[in-house]
Every structure is written in structure tokens, then in C-alpha cells.
Amino acid sequence: MLTVTLWGGNIVLLKALLSYLDAQSINAGRFLVAGVVLVALAVRAHGWPRWPARTWLAVAGVGLLGNSLFQTLFLTGINLSPAGVAGLVNGVVPVLVLPLGLLLGHRVTVKQAGGVGVAFLGLLGLLLLTRQPGTPVSLVGLGWLLLAATCWALYTLFNRSLSARVGALPFVAFSLGLGCLPYLLLALPHLHVRGTPPLAWLGVLASGLGANVVAYLAWARGAQVLGAARTSVWNTLAPVIALILSALLLHEHLPLPVWLAAGVILGGAAWANWPERPAPLGG
């Protein structure tokens, strides 16, 4: 619950921060905060990794995909979309993981295929809504968000195998630290931060620590206690929290068809990831 609340609330926080800072400044601040803290925690817990060069390259490459590229696409999509709709990225990712996993030889059950089919029907409905005059959902914004979701789905797939080899915390820490370096090198010389309210920088700090440090650690702990299958279902709650908070805090008024499409997407995602049978606690 802590993780999905932080991830859902982070969408609303990022949408609010875009009123005071550009996407480059927000991402650079979040990367610096989360990267330094996570690498320090990983080194303290496990020491400096002694991986072969191939493993370092794999971690850096996957980190580039899941951090620099994902965050660039995601914040672009948030800037062009309501925060509630942007939050659906968390719901679309589990749906995209399954068909993309087929390319890597993963098996998909009939139940999973059914859930993916339902979720894609909801996504199709959301795409059709972008053609309606006056709708707050834009085709361009939704396109950026879907590209971001695809990046994160691929990151998730590679995450599983690499985390098993090098450990979850070292992978998350060094994939973020190495993966954000190209972004920081390109962004830092062009940042314009004069006149930014201190509260905005506090928001960047909260986003970096909350969504990228505390949430990751809490999610990993939850997976240990509940098991991976049961934990994945909880991920569908993050978009729900984002939708509710965007309505309460940002006063976004999404039309009923958008809520219905979101419900179909999240229902399909939950169905596709629902455990085949109850997993014992600690499994």
C-alpha cells in the first residue's frame, strides 16, 4: 500500500511540478537524489560490485532504457495529458509485459491472454476517445505515455533476470546510477533554475526519495512477504490512486467514458496478473 500510494501520488506531484520547472530540471534533480541514495545503500549492504564487464554493460543498458528514456517519454506525456490518464501507465505496463515476454520465450496462460485482451479493449476505447471534440485526452499525449509504458515493460522483463543474478538492490541502484548519466551530462549544462520556489525543489526531493527510493525498497519487501504473483496485482492500484488524487488535488474532471476505459484497462491488468492459486504468506 505504501508503494502504490507513493507511485500514484508521484504522478500528481510531477504534474504540479511542471508548472514551476521544466522536465529536464525535474528529472535531473530526481536522478541525482535517487542515484546517490540508492548507490550508497547498495554499497553499504553488499559492497562494491565485482561484476564482469558484460554485466556492467547489461545493467547500464537496461538502466538507460528504464530511467533516461522512460522518464523523458513519461514527463513529456504527463505535460500533454491529465495526471489521472498519465497514471494509467502503471496499469498498462503489466499488460505489455506479457506479449513482450513472448519475444523472449516466456509462456502466457489462457487467463493471462484473456486479461491482456480485455485491457487492450479498454486501451482501444481510450484511443477512440481522443477523437472526440473537447476531450481532455490527446492522441499525442497518449502516444508518448504508451511509448513510456513500453520502455518500462521492457525494463521490467530484463529486470527479472538481472536482479536474480546480481541482487535486487544492486541492480536497481546501479541501473539507475549508470542509466541516468547520459541524461545528466546532456541536461545539466542547459538547466534554468533561477526564480524557482524552494517548495518546488522540495517537491523534486520528495519525488526522488519517495517514488525512486522508498517505494522501490517497500515494493521489494512486499514481494518477499506476499510473493511476486500476488504483489503484481497490487500494482493496478497505483493508477486508481493517481486518478482519485488528480481529481481531489488538481481538480481534474475527466468525463465518465475515460473512467470507464480506465476501469476496463485496470480490470484486464488485474485479471492477467491474478495468481492461479493462493500463494502462502512468505512465498
Describe it:
The chain is mainly alpha-helical and 283 residues long. It has one domain. 77% of the residues lie in helices and 0% in strands. It has 13 helices and no strands. The protein has helices spanning 2-17, 23-46, 53-79, 83-86, 89-102, 110-129, 139-166, 168-179, 181-187, 198-226, 228-234, 237-249, 256-273. The chain crosses the membrane at residues 25-43, 55-78, 84-105, 112-130, 136-155, 167-188, 200-220, 232-250, 256-274.
- Uncertain stretches: 279-283
Structural class: mainly alpha
Count the beta strands. Answer: 0
Q: Rg from C-alpha positions?
A: 18 Å
Please, what is the average pLDDT? Answer: 84
What count of helical segments does DSSP give? 13
From the spread of the alpha carbons, the general shape counts as: globular
User: Could you describe the largest sheet, including whether it forms a barrel?
Assistant: none
Q: Give the % helix.
A: over 70%
Q: Please provide the ordered H/E string of secondary-structure elements.
A: HHHHHHHHHHHHH
What descriptors fit this protein?
283 residues, mainly alpha, 13 helices, 0% strand, globular, disordered C terminus
What's the topology here?
Blueprint: H1 2-17, H2 23-46, H3 53-79, H4 83-86, H5 89-102, H6 110-129, H7 139-166, H8 168-179, H9 181-187, H10 198-226, H11 228-234, H12 237-249, H13 256-273
Pfam families: EamA
Membrane topology: Multi-pass membrane protein
Organism: Deinococcus ficus
Q: What's the short version?
A:
This is EamA family transporter. The protein has one domain. 77% of the residues lie in helices and 0% in strands.
